[in-house]
Amino acid sequence: MAQTSPLLPGTLDLLILKTLSVQSLHGYGIAQHVQRLSADVLQVEEGSLYPALQRLQLKGWVRSKWKQSPTGRRARYYELTAPGKKQLTAELKGFDQLIQAIRAVLA
Amino acid sequence: MAQTSPLLPGTLDLLILKTLSVQSLHGYGIAQHVQRLSADVLQVEEGSLYPALQRLQLKGWVRSKWKQSPTGRRARYYELTAPGKKQLTAELKGFDQLIQAIRAVLA
DNA sequence: ATCTATGCATAGGTCGCCTACGTATAGCCT
DNA sequence: AGGCTATACGTAGGCGACCTATGCATAGAT
Question: Which among B74, B87, B5, B91 has a CA at the least distance from the CA of B44?
Answer without folding.
Answer: B5
